[in-house]
TrEMBL record:
GO terms for biological process: autophagy. One of its GO terms (molecular function) is lipid binding. Its main location: membrane. It comes from Salmo trutta. This is Tectonin beta-propeller repeat-containing protein 1.
Amino acid sequence: MPVSLLWAVDVYGRVYSLSTGGQQWEQCHDAVLEFKRVTAVQQCCWGIACDHHIYLNVHSSDVPIRYQEETYENQRWNPKDNFSDHLLPSDRWHWSDITGLEHQPLDSFLLPSTNWEWEGDWYVDENFGGEPTEKGGWTYAMDFPATYMKDKKWNSCVRRRRWIRYRRYKATDTWAKIPSEGQSGPLPDPFNDISCGGWEISEEPRGRLSLWAVSLQGKVWFRDGIHHHSPEGDGWEEVSLPGEVVQISCGPGDLVWAVLWEGQLIVREGITRDSPQGSSWVVVDSPNPEAGAIHVAVGDNVVWAVTKDNKVWFRRGINSHNPCGSGWIGMVGEMVMVNVGLNDQVWGISCVDRAVYFRQGVTSSELSGKAWKVVNVPRDGDIRSHSSASISIGACSSSPPPEPPPIDPDIPKPRIPKVTSDSFISEMLSDQEVALGEPEAKCPLPALVLSPSLSGGLGDPQWSNVDLEETQTHLAVGPAGVRGDSPDTCSLSSVATYTLCQGDPYGADEHPLWAWVSGGGCALASSVQSMSLSISPAQTAAWRKQIFEQLSERSKREMDHFKHYEQSVWVKKGTMQWWRDWKPHKWVDVRFALEQFSGPEGNQDGILFLYYNFNEEKKYLHAFINEVTILVPVLNDSKHTFAVYTAERTKQRWPIRLAAATELALLSVSCCDSRGIQGPPSKQAIWSVTCKGDIFVCEPSPSLEACPYPTPCDQMFWRQVGGHLRLVECNSLGVVWGVGYDHTAWVYTGGYGGGIFQDNIYTQTDVKCVYIYENQRWNPVTGYTNRGLPTDRYMWSDATGLQECTKANTKPPSPHWTWVADWTIDYGISGGTDREGWQYAADFPTSYHGHKTLKDFVRRRRWARKCKLTTTGPWQEVPPIPLSDVTIVLCGAQSSVEPIPLWAISNKGDVGCVYQPFKSISIGGANQVWAIARDGSAFYRGSVSSESPAGDCWYHIPCPGRQKLQQVSVGRTSVYTVDQNGNLWFRQGLTPSYPQGSSWEHICNNVRKVSVGPLDQVWIIADKVQGSHSLSCGTVCHRLGVQPMEPKGQSWDYGIGGGWDHITVRGNSIEAPRVRMPSLTPSLTGPPPPRSLLPVMITEMENGNAVRC
């Protein structure tokens, strides 16, 4: 899981964070003031300091927070001045927004706060719809507003150009003060409590958060406009209340609960995407009428509460349809406060020892958990002061905390406060007795100011004032350690000032006394039982490797005595299901037998038999294990299915489909044994990914790129590697990176195998969305309804409308996936939506748009539901930036590059210092970096070298034939791209002096992905490849005839498919053996030379859209 942080505040106001990959509590030393409480999410942490102001700490990232400001310069043509800023009275402003309705001169753009800075000056955008404009960036039209074009025509009477400037958020990893100002000015009273959440309400805008705050007078305020490009938000809005609130809690979704002064609880209702503040409150009684509630914490589907007697309560029946729940359940334990984090994990602070506890056993099926366990982790100060001591890292014990060392009975024992209050620091200070006669030099002292009525003793500290600022003035101190009266200390007359040590207030063996904890940004796996925040997987433990080594040695020692015995035949029998090849196609129960034996050369071999009945006659199918080229898992929502391919069945695109729960692993091991393949893939391996996310590798033979007799693609053997990814990229130095469907980056560990024969295997998760469509048709009586015409699509369907998909019958892609969220409306669909998520069109299927017109008789909206896959594989997560594409520099087989350049695109489209979001990037030989922007335009990065690996600027490359490009791959000397219509293009004219090239040449169509290797070899994922029964989508193809004098190649050779989505050959740098070509003149006496049998080329079609599988 990704590294995340648990935040906590001790009773002295010091803020600490504990990383799930760390070993200790780290103190935030940049905090100037002491803090009362914090609320954290994954990207930031909010806090209330003891000055009652709110502060924000945004975590730093390799991708900065940047916001694009833009304005348009408009001009009109006239016979006298040509194009000028002299516009008609009815025209738009000279400087305006894109609509022309708002006046936006360049000097009107100001920074939102001092936490922002400008990246540079204003510049003109010379990119228009993916095409470069003329110098100056002007686009022309006949009038305002109209359709703009980059070329000037005779009737172009107006023109405009876009000016862009970027600002960057600079206050990262530090506490930035948030102004306490509402819509009508400063807020009337300071804040007392704060809670952040709501990131699951909507994904638009990205990073959207809800921040709720409570003032000292019991009012509730909502911070509006918090999202990724505005982490501070816009302003405060007051929320009406049925009473005075003392504490509030906001969950990741639409759950918001608060505690009233009388001890009752209130629940916010009506929270939606368009109304994150909600609409009304509902009162819920306290769990204990005699002891009202003092604290509440909410998560996704849980609510926890603490009453005045420190009892902990769990609210049952909480869900999105019933935010109030149905009843309270008393839990074991007494806590000062509790907090709910990610995955509904619960944290708390005990009222007995002020230690942080977590709730063990919290799962989706048992949200209340099982038991409390203490988080026993040292502080950074403890490790520095005990550097020679042995410390148990990241461990949390279920046993009680260790007893403190014996103390002198003459020294009074400090009292531990039992409740968390706004004056907890004052309360702690009131319990400290000043040791008279100690030298002041032992510890620097701030001032503690008490009222005159309390100067005689410390028995009643409720009216004590704490000066939280460090004393800047050197005051005279008497021999008793009490500061004398001074008018510089306070405006009050005759006050007594007591000293407080600024050093470490805890003893050598004392654990911190915690006052507040926040786990809103801390992600822990639900399977964690012993609560170890930095636990290492058991697969990498030393004892595991030692046991494996001992078992291997014992097995070898015992098997050596039986080498002279004849090897016997091993037979595995069982039952499975087989998909019948002929009509009616259906699953048939069959018996199978896997016979394994030693081959003539001592290698393992075998045969798979399938026995079935047809017309009351017993028949069988068989496949030789050494002829199997791949075993592919197939998507099925109810069965564990897979396909068996041989070279012949690969040509026909007609595999043997089987359904079995466990036999796939057995067959995979048998296939690898028959070919003598063991251990991890080599550095030269070819990697590919299916549409399902399964990862396969193939060990290339030296003759794979031979000319004119290469190894046929259909004879290549592919084996599966554990894990689940959307794409994989590699190079010949063994560096392999992958990106999941949830944009998580993973790096290959060099592991391999399955079962007990594995190494460097870790847990891997992936999340993706399943989409269904709700369709409606308009009629003059009832308007839009779910009653369509007989020829219409299903009212609940997939994207094509051909398959019925309702919320009830739609299942996860396979049994390996599980739902992790409920169905929600997707507002991010291409074309835009209205406020309710609908898209409108004239009929099914046509182009959809997000606003209704008089000609729109049908509408649809997309529903999304997230599902999660948990598997294992040789992959380790690369935090913390989510990526959409990655590329690694090409290298030769014998080259050594230190360090290895790697380029990546974040899921926002950021890469390097680019002013436009990208979607594809590739780095080739000689540090050539090409990228594709989201608008389909191509860019080349200039001046990239080993001395300057980031380059200096981007060059805009015109697209081929007004096509919008989708993906790019750069080889040693070749550049290939794929456009949105599935056309493959080759860049001509690349030279060392002009690396941008001169023009594009069309190669073929029906291409989904392209990969160019370090030898300029070309491999693609092709669609619409003809098989024996139908067209195959997602087929691996190899370009034949690629040579230095013929970089475009000649024809295609078909490999495994369909169902493939990605391939990379960027690690295969094996040079083909040189073959001596026979003489072209036939010998008069000898036989004629053999003819070269090249496969058929891909059928040429008219820019057909690629069919997705």
